[in-house]
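Reviewers of the previous submission asked for a worked example of the structure-prediction workflow described in the proposal, so we include one complete record here. The input consisted solely of the amino acid sequence. No template or homolog information was supplied to the procedure at any stage.
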Amino acid sequence: MCTGNICRSPALELLLSTALDGSVTVTSAGTRGLPGWGVSPPMAALLAADGISADGFASRALTASDVRGADLVLTLTAAHRSRVLEDEPLALRRTLSLGELARLSSAVPVGAVVGADDAARLGSLVRASLAQRHRFPGAHSEDDVVDPYRLGDKVYAESYAQLTGHVGRIVGALGHTA
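From that input alone, the workflow returned the following structure tokens.
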């Protein structure tokens, strides 16, 4: 989840959908989604360079129902996480920033991630990661993924590198490579 749902969050949706098996349904939305818009061309080009098509993607706005119905809500910044929790405080134990989950997943003990498919492994990874939160209190600035909207190709590349790095760490913690 990000702001406009045309740069970071659709890239995250597509990266995770590509990396995870069919047991996981990945969707994205924006706090101020731009309904019907496609992925911004610079982000779509970065995805395409990795063999991922953004064709057919349509931006949408986040709803309370989305949050209530999700097993896991990943945000792209701590501010987005705060926004989700202002609207849906009961989502606390299943709402993390992508960077936070990636950071915490690296501290998960070997053997803590179990399950027959990626949905089960992701659930156990989230639980084990949350159990590590006390070791790393507070927000970390490196957890936020930079918003490249209307900025140059260099910022898009930086944002995409952050996304792929975080996804790689999470998928690696599940026991396979992105």
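Residues 153-173 form the longest helix (21 residues). We consider this example representative of the routine output the project will generate in years two and three.
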